[in-house]
Each structure stands twice: as C-alpha cells, then as structure tokens.
C-alpha cells in the first residue's frame, strides 16, 4: 500500500528523475489496443528531457485513437477551446503547427522493456509511444525516439 501511495504521489507531482520514471513505467500494467480507443487528454511528466515544457507552451491537448490504423498522435487546443489534430513532423522539427487531415500514426502490440503493450507508431517519424496503465482511464507513457539519448514521459487521461 505504501509503495502505491508513493507511486501516485510522484505521478501527481508531474516530475521525477529518469531512473524513477522508468521504474514507475515498468511497474505499470500493460495495455491492449482496444482500451486505447477514444480521446485522451495529455499531461507532461518532467524528467529533464529537452522536450519538457514544450508541448504545454504549444497548448497540447492529447491524442485520439480511432482504430488500429488511424491515430491522431498530436491534438492541440485552440484559443476558443476547439481541439484539432496536428501533423507531428513540423512540430518535432520545431517549426509550426500545421493542421492534419486524418490520423498520422497507427497502433500495434509491441514488446518493449520486456513486456508486450500497446504502442503508437508515427507514420513519418522514428518515434514509438509505449503505453502502460496506472489505473482505469490513466496511462503512463514513454516516447522512444530513435537516436534520442533518453525517453520522454507523459500521462494520458481518458476523456471519451
């Protein structure tokens, strides 16, 4: 019980060192593809990664999983509360937000860190987002970007 409380305290704080974040990720349950279907609100989890704080500044909303072949990997919220999908390539290239028509990623079950879990694969970037379940409606996620020195962590809360 004490370990679970500590786990939730760290997640609620939104930050940890890389080692602790990896331990939390590894302790979480795996996720199947069906449980991802829907819209999820994102929240950054800081570990000292260069992307920490970037998505929040851009008004990142989250992700939408329509089916295994169609995922909107980056949703942003406009000034008037409208939520729209964005092409991830210009965002990751540190250019600008360009609205996307249709999904720019897909989902597969993949082995990662010794366990098979739902993974989102970007269509045009060497990035895989791996998902683990903290509790119903809350995921702890690790972005694995080929060539990056450390993973980027974030949380997803189910909206609908």
TrEMBL record:
Stretches assigned to the DUF4334 domain: 103-157
Ranges of residues in domain GXWXG: 23-81
Matches recorded under InterPro entries: DUF4334, GXWXG_dom
Source organism, top-level taxon: Bacteria
Protein name: DUF4334 domain-containing protein
């Amino acid at each position: 019980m004490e370990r679970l409380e500590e786990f939730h305290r760290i997640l609620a704080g939104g930050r940890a060192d890389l080692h602790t974040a990896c331990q939390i990720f590894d302790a979480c349950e795996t996720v199947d593809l069906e449980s991802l279907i829907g819209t999820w609100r994102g929240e950054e989890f800081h570990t000292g990664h260069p992307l920490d704080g970037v998505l929040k500044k851009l008004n990142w909303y989250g992700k939408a999983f329509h089916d295994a072949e169609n995922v909107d990997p980056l949703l942003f919220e406009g000034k008037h509360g409208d939520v729209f999908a964005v092409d991830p390539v210009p965002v990751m290239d540190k250019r600008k937000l360009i609205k996307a028509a249709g999904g720019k990623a897909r989902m597969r079950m993949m082995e990662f860190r010794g366990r098979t879990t739902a993974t989102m694969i970007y269509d045009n970037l060497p990035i895989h987002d791996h998902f683990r379940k903290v509790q119903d409606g809350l995921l702890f996620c690790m972005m694995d970007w080929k060539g990056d020195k450390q993973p980027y962590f974030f949380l997803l809360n189910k909206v609908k």
